[in-house]
Amino acid sequence: MLFYTRSRFFRAWQHGLKVLFFCAVALVLLMYMQAQLRGQVAELQALNTSIRVPGQVTDGQGLRFDNLSISEQLTDLFWSAEGALSSYVHQLAIKASVPYARLAEQAVGLSPPALTALTTLASDGRLRHRDGLAVTFYPDYDEEVFFSDNALCLIHPAMKQYLEIAEDDTTWLELELLMHRLGEDKPESVKARLQVVGTALLEDENAVLAPYPWLRAFAGRQGYTISSDAISFVMRDNSQIEAFTKQFLPHFAEPHMAYVPSKHVPGGLYYRMSGIVVHDQAYQNAWSAIERSITLTRLSIAGTFAMVLLAGVLLCYISLRNRRQELAVLLTLGSSKASLMLHTVLDQGAWVVLGLITGILLSLSFQVSPRQRLMMVAYIALSFLAGITLTAWRFTRLPVILMMKDKA
Amino acid sequence: MPILLIEDLNYSYISKSQRTDAIRDANYVFESGQVYVIMGKSGSGKTTLLSLLAGLDKPLSGQISLDGEGLESMDISRYRRDKVAMIYQQFNLLPLLSVQENVMYPMVLSGVSKPEAQQRSVERLRELGLGEQFDRRLPHTLSGGEQQRVAIARALCMPARVILADEPTGSLDSENSKIIMGILKDLAHEKGYLVIIVTHDPAVAEHGDTCLRMDAGRFPVLTKTNHWNNQINS
Ligand SMILES: Nc1ncnc2c1ncn2[C@@H]1O[C@H](COP(=O)(O)OP(=O)(O)O)[C@@H](O)[C@H]1O
Ligand SMILES: [Mg+2]
């Protein structure tokens, strides 16, 4: 049988060339798109480190402007599944709104920014006041800055009357919270002690934010739902921009939770998805444009994969159908079906291999990782192998008597 | 010396929409050293019968046996390769192999060494009047008569002693028909082959020792001219 396969290889190369051509083109196409994708992903990564989010920075004597770059770890979390959220829970801050605003207004006489509890001070809350460090949220509204090892607290001096330093150095704020009981529309007023680690200015509404684990536990115990939102702020830094950046960056974004009406609790809400939202229009525009093209490229790769599979099977099928009588003659001369299968696999396989080699050579200059290169080669090889085996198996199942009667 | 026996043979082509009973209760004994000619209308089942004898499919019921051994108990590929040889109206040479390679192919398949296969193929080709100039040519460059002789040479290289020929002269002129028939007859009478020929051509039928008729799947059918041996039917 090998004898026949070899002869056919050299004498029917015109047919083989079709397979070679197809495999080479498919591989080059896939490599090209993969390289494209790689480029787009790299672009996205570059965007993460290069784009500057405008932040206003001051040292207390006047306004200064600086740009902060977005750290990669934030964007990694984009639209992570809810389950993944728990591992970031210690970084979350939750908005509980209005009551703090009322309190602050009484104390300060000005419309306050949101009080935000930015992180985990639950266990490690030794806040230290930094002299001379203040954040200006808007004209005439400054807040003092407290640092701990892993978080910061911003608070208006007039609000300090509500602050209390606990034995374990955790900072607490006594205030009323408005909270929604599950299934009810009207919020209820609840007295609470909030852990406080910082504040930031929310876009349009006053809110208080507390460490997520704490707030969740608090709300959960009493049957409340908590809603959260993204925060954004204009940061006015002081001379210690480095330290500030370090402290702020981990909190620059926070999880955004989308809600849909619960099917189980009338009027109730439940989490559907969560992720990190970075509030910067330029960044978001650039990001989503690249995201779109990545999605597009991914789709075309998937489409091409499917087409390669289909075309591979089709090509094998047509080739075998045209050779039906020839194959039947081989069978009548006493070739076994197994050796006939082997013949068809080798017969096409040789050209597939040549096609893949051609494709690899032609796409050498594309920027594709060796692993992906290998995967695509393997994919094409496998889809052809599957196509050949499947069609060969299908054909050799026919009784020879019927194959002989077909005139190709 | 081979004896090919068919007993209560039935075969049908079954598709989703219909069923064609191509062979109905055929019984016969073919003996070696003889040329059998089978005639019959188109569609009467002649090709089907030969194909079953060549082991190209299993009968629906009944039995075929060669020298007392049932076909169903043999390795079918080896039976096709070593026990019977088929010759067709369309010659059915492998188009990509040269004349010599075509003749060598079944030998190589059964494990004969290449040099030996080459030598045997040359001998057979020369015996059949195909000179050296044909060895390297591809089948489609040969005339019908030449192609048919290549097909016969291919059959003769194997140990098979049963030759099944389906309209072997159907594509040949009368000159070439005569040559081919002469070869087949010699094989039966001088070398002891069992030769079964299906034909439309009365001139070809003349060469047969026994002329049989097939009609709507029934085989053999008595006619006033036939002189078939009804050993097993009576
Ligand atoms: N592949 C097939 N599928 C269905 N019916 C077939 C097939 N081949 C042959 N037949 C039918 O079987 C009968 C016998 O066919 P065949 O043996 O080729 O006859 P012959 O060789 O005597 O002309 C015919 O009726 C024919 O139509
Ligand atoms: Mg016929």
Explain the overall architecture.
By secondary structure, chain A is an alpha+beta fold. Chain A has twelve helices and 15 strands. Chain B has a single domain (3-93, 160-233), classed as P-loop containing nucleotide triphosphate hydrolases (Rossmann fold, 3-Layer(aba) Sandwich), CATH 3.40.50. Chain B is 32% helix and 25% strand. Chain B contains seven helices and nine strands; from the N terminus they run βββαββαβαααβαβαβ. In chain B, a hairpin with a 2-residue loop joins strand 4 and strand 5. Chain B starts with a strand and ends in a 20-residue tail after the last strand. In chain B, 46% of the residues are buried. The model of chain B is unreliable at 224-234 (pLDDT under 50). Chain A binds chain B through residues 1, 3-4, 7-8, 11-12, 325-326, 329-337, 399-402, 404-405, and chain B through 13, 47-48, 51-52, 54, 56-58, 77-82, 86, 92, 94-97, 101, 105-106, 108-110, 154. The structure holds adenosine-5'-diphosphate (ADP) and magnesium ion. Adenosine-5'-diphosphate binds at residues 13, 20, 22, 40, 42-48 of chain B.
Q: How many angstroms separate the termini of chain A?
A: 22 Å
- Tally of distinct domains of chain A: 2
The helix/strand series of chain A, from N terminus to C terminus, equals HHEEHHEHEEEEEEEEEHEHEEHHHHH
Helix content of chain B: 25-40%
- Portion in beta strands of chain B: 25-35%
Query: How many β-strands of chain A, per DSSP?
Result: 15
CATH topology of chain B: Rossmann fold
Beta strand % of chain A: 15-25%
Detail the poorly predicted runs of chain B: 224-234
The CATH superfamily of chain B is: P-loop containing nucleotide triphosphate hydrolases
Q: How many domain units of chain B?
A: 1
Given helix and strand content, the structural type of chain A is alpha+beta
Form type of chain B? globular
Oligomer: heterodimer
- The spatial strand order of the largest sheet of chain B comes to 6-7-8-3-9
Largest interface: A-B, 24 and 28 residues
DSSP strand tally of chain B = 9
Indicate the radius of gyration of chain B in whole angstroms. 18 Å
Instruction: Please tally the helical runs of chain B, counting DSSP H or I stretches of 4 or more residues.
Output: 7
Largest sheet of chain B: 5 strands, parallel
